[in-house]
């Protein structure tokens, strides 16, 4: 396959994302030979660093992340640095001179990727300057990679979108949702559409409910300032959680092309039942962590975290019941929950199948377990199918059994980081695993109705869950009302082989 050729200009190159994710991912691609020598990176930030300093920084970040790094010297030779003031045209003019020079030096055909890995308030300003100061006037392709948050609500997202659409067309915009780069999130489509076993059952006749959990052990760390204005609903539900719902619920696309897949996902989001007004209290639960013990160590509550209002009304946990009003899913609840400072770091999807019409093995003291398909997104990667089988021996008693497939142990190596795949996709011009504007807009309009109610009613019970637990009791009651319960995430660990 031809290796992609491009100049990558990273805004926010001295920041955390670049250090933790972007440089190590680029290095992986380089080491694997997926990108050849026809690439160059310009790191852009405010700090007055020299090129040597920046190259050292890139090298350190790769070493910290990967331990050892053969070829690192030749890799960092591709990195350049430009200190800029993002509001000042002359900075962009200088940047363009460097870009033009590297274009010739590395034979890059004028291909440019602008990666905005920095505070969102500058997204609009930067894109305006990119055009006004000539950086986008190139002979090759121009692409914009933009990190979340994409706006704060529908209105601000629209404004931002209008601004960037002045400079880039929709198919030149790559909105990152890093969950779409995760191996097992990408596997949802394959599990569904490449198996005769599942697709015929993938509907309201055979599925009783679907549960998606994304729990974190970490608190807000040093992101209090951002998080206190955002909360779990905007930070996780609007993007990652709804994207997983869309992939689980979409119809099979007629082709595996970007447009066809996105258009099926959009249809799911359009079929989401809007939850408004009083219904918000019935369909959604919010939580905020108080102090508690994580691995036997006491940690502070959310309101005691740095840069958080000591009386904050911001949620650090959300559970919700989503209904998709279409033929396939009418009547099947999709339960989602996500939060910080929970007892486990885990992202899992549990598909619970309906009970068989008549249970020949029913015993009061030993009810038959439902069939479950568990998709382990992280930290383990794999799937588990929960079945019932005969207990060995004389009697016809049943026992639950599990069929496990662990992705990482089959391949014998760690699967690539989400960012590695997404960067590579962008370089090749494949936007399938990025979010289209229509998806962003529909997700915001769903979430906005919920924020509206939560912002107008103070939750007097906050904090309502202790750090180190699986969230407030109300999240359990949400399912109990429907006769279900959360399948505990820790029960589903893929056996290490
Ligand atoms: C980010 C959120 O989008 O996703 C963070 O802003 C969150 O608050 C993170 O911690 C979770 O990602 P992952 O890949 O660790 O599940």
Estimate percent helicity.
25-40%
Order of strands in the sheet with the most strands?
8-12-13-7-14-15-16-17
Structural class: alpha/beta
User: What ligand species are in this complex?
Assistant: 6-O-phosphono-beta-D-glucopyranose
Number of helices, where a helix is a run of at least 4 consecutive DSSP H or I residues: 14
Instruction: Tell me the Rg in angstroms.
Output: 24 Å
> What's the shape?
globular
Q: Point out poorly predicted stretches.
A: 409-414, 492-497
Strand content: 15-25%
Strands, count:
18
What would the keywords be for this entry?
single chain, 497 residues, alpha/beta, 6-stranded parallel sheet, 14 helices, 18 strands, globular, disordered C terminus, binds 6-O-phosphono-beta-D-glucopyranose
Account of the protein in words:
This protein is an alpha/beta fold and 497 residues long. Helices cover 36% and strands 20% of the residues. It has helices at 16-31, 51-66, 72-76, 89-106, 123-132, 154-165, 183-193, 224-249, 258-271, 279-283, 407-411, 418-428, 437-456, 473-480, and strands at residues 6-11, 39-45, 79-83, 112-116, 142-146, 173-175, 207-215, 284-287, 289-290, 292-294, 297-299, 317-322, 334-339, 346-353, 372-378, 382-390, 398-406, 465-466. An eight-stranded mixed sheet has the order 8-12-13-7-14-15-16-17, with helices on both faces. β10 (292-294) and β11 form a beta hairpin. α1 packs across α2, α8 crosses α13 (437-456) and α9 (258-271) runs parallel beside α13 (437-456). The radius of gyration is 24 Å and the shape is globular. The chain starts with 5 loop residues before the first strand and ends in a 17-residue tail after the last helix. The structure holds 6-O-phosphono-beta-D-glucopyranose (BG6). 6-O-phosphono-beta-D-glucopyranose binds at residues 148, 214, 216, 235, 347. Residues 148, 214, 216, 235, 347 line the site of 6-O-phosphono-beta-D-glucopyranose.
